[in-house]
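In this section we walk through a basic example: taking a raw amino acid sequence and producing a predicted 3D structure, encoded as discrete structure tokens. The instruction is simple. Fold the sequence below.
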Amino acid sequence: MRDNTEDYRQLFLRAIPLMDVRAPVEFHKGAFPGTINRPLMDDAERQQVGTCYKQAGQQAAIELGNRLVCGDLKEKRIAEWVAFAQQHPEGYLYCFRGGLRSQIVQQWLAEAGVQYPRVVGGYKAMRRFLIDSLDGAVRDCPLHVVAGLTGTGKTEVIHALDNSLDLEGHAHHRGSSFGRHATAQPGQIDFENALAIEALRARAAGCGQLVLEDESRMVGSCTVPLELYQAMQSAPLIWLEDSFDNRVGRILGDYVIDMHAQFADLCPEQPEQAFSDFAEHLTNGLLRIRKRLGGERFQNFQAIMQEALDVQQRTGDVRAHREWIEGLLTHYYDPMYAYQRAGKEERVVFSGDQQSVIEYLRQFAL
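The resulting token sequence is shown next.
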């Protein structure tokens, strides 16, 4: 059998398949990208065993666990572990601390003829490693922050660079009132884990400086780790520029065409329901900035948006959406960003279009 491991760095750098044998409730609170949950005990069984452990000690808890997970149920779970091991011979299993639960799974697998290694220290040690890795990256790597008006394509710049951290991508949110996707955001721990792994891989590839998009502390429901956010507030700013028409077209593509496609993918057999959900998504985005728009302007944009949705539903034509997008840029987003830039002007070290910004930032990749 391959040895058990505590080389957490290689596990994440190489994206080694991991089998999490914790209970589902633990897994859903936080896990690692690509990890599969194949629990030793379900939530109810874990609760019973935990209560027994507190009241009667470890041996009594083990005996209860063996009574709860036995017979056909035990065979079913072993079969799931065997299938994972066969599908991922290079992988590892882990529990919370790399202790009793993962050792029991190892033992039962061995009795079934499969030798499979575990991660020493388990989830807790791997999570600590990632927290420390991200803190180290913030401490050791100078940051550059890409800023600019809404719709200039800041995310496209991030995706074009090897030394970037994609806050919006990991948060599964575009960072604005319309930024939600058709599917839910990850939990906070999952967001932090994915961000730390990206930073780890960038540094392993030799990147000495990191690039991020200018964001508020909250990206939807995900919170940017405090040390990283604080470092972003004093980092040099690179200001991305683009024409008004290009910005409107990009927003139309991202927030109308792509978003409708996301909802359609979720309800392929119910196109009317998909469109209704998409329309609700857009109108809710406008509602979130209602107070800042003011009542009269909000009602005007709401009417324009509804008309655009009606035209889109009848004909498939999305061009009518350009009117409310143009209005929001002119009367809300651009004045807000202009005010924000005025307070950050001394930090702007470079301004330019997308290609010139990418070329400028690539010089800091190594």
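Looking at the output, two observations stand out. DSSP finds 17 helices and ten strands in the chain. Residues 244-266 form the longest helix (23 residues). In the next section we compare this with other chains.
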